TrEMBL record:
Start and end residues of each Ig-like domain: 29-118, 121-214
CDD domains with a match to the protein in the record: Ig
SMART domains listed in its UniProt record: IG
Protein name according to UniProt: Ig-like domain-containing protein
Native species: Channa striata (Snakehead murrel)
Length: 252
């Protein structure tokens, strides 16, 4: 009987301790069971922190907010018992950011949420380019997205690229997809290129490149000509200096 009484008292004390000190974060949009808020780029997140203390004094405890461990500046009147933070607009750098609300007097009492910012690849419109024959051609597509795009493809005049026959090289580092031609030929490389991506939540996005190939022009050999002119000028100057006495006699 005695042990049963002690057990009941222990559980009562444990229950009271979990109720007297606590911090809860409510959010719009809602936070999921893993403490993550999914939000689109340029949208708004509203966070509300509540101190759910058992007594009136504890319920009015001062709260602090941290973003990735750095303190967030709060106005007076937005600290005691309840405190709100608004993130607007949500930017790229907010992806993965963790917001923590905790008691100022006891940093072990707190709650955290993490933002998962979703955004589509910045891929649209068209671009006109001109390349000389025998020169290099580089086309770039911004494919950065969250979640990452599931596929990237390139076409020329509506057909898939012949990588070997056309001398194309395609690279993809997760941020950009790059199409490179080391030596442009008019018959092979002139036309309308299309870079397309597919996102699991945003669907397809594309950008077009209209490439015109012109004949190769002779490069004016400016540096050798300048060097030759300098040599001629210096030679003439030395000739004048060496014959200065004779030239001077002519004017006496």
């Amino acid at each position: 009987m005695k042990w049963m009484f002690v057990s009941h008292v222990f559980h009562l004390l444990l229950y009271c301790s979990t109720q007297t000190l606590g911090v809860e974060i409510q959010s719009e949009p809602d936070v999921n069971s893993e403490g993550v808020i999914q939000i689109e780029l340029n949208q708004t997140v509203n966070l509300l922190c509540l101190s759910n203390g058992g007594s009136e004094a504890q319920a009015d405890e001062e709260l602090v907010w941290l973003r990735n461990g750095a303190m967030v500046s709060l106005k007076e009147g937005n600290k005691n018992g309840r405190s709100s933070v608004c993130v607007t607009p949500v930017i790229y750098e907010d992806n993965g950011a963790t917001f923590t609300c905790q008691l100022k007097t006891n940093s072990t009492v707190g709650s955290s949420v993490t933002l998962n910012v979703t955004y589509r690849p910045q891929l649209s419109g068209s671009e006109e380019l001109t390349a000389e024959e025998k020169s290099a051609l580089v086309l770039q597509c911004n494919i950065l997205a969250n979640p990452p795009v599931s596929s990237v493809s390139w076409t020329l005049n509506g057909s898939a690229l012949d990588l070997l026959g056309g001398g194309f090289t395609v690279t993809n580092d997760g941020y950009e997809s790059q199409l490179t031609v080391s030596s442009v030929g008019k018959s092979l490389h002139e036309g309308l290129y299309r870079c397309s991506t597919h996102s699991p939540i945003y669907g397809e996005a594309s950008k077009f490149f209209s490439v015109t190939v012109t004949e190769q022009t002779m490069k004016f050999p400016l540096i050798p000509i300048i060097a030759g002119l300098l040599v001629v000028c210096l030679t003439a100057l030395l000739a004048i200096v060496s014959r200065w006495k004779r030239i001077a006699k002519c004017f006496k």
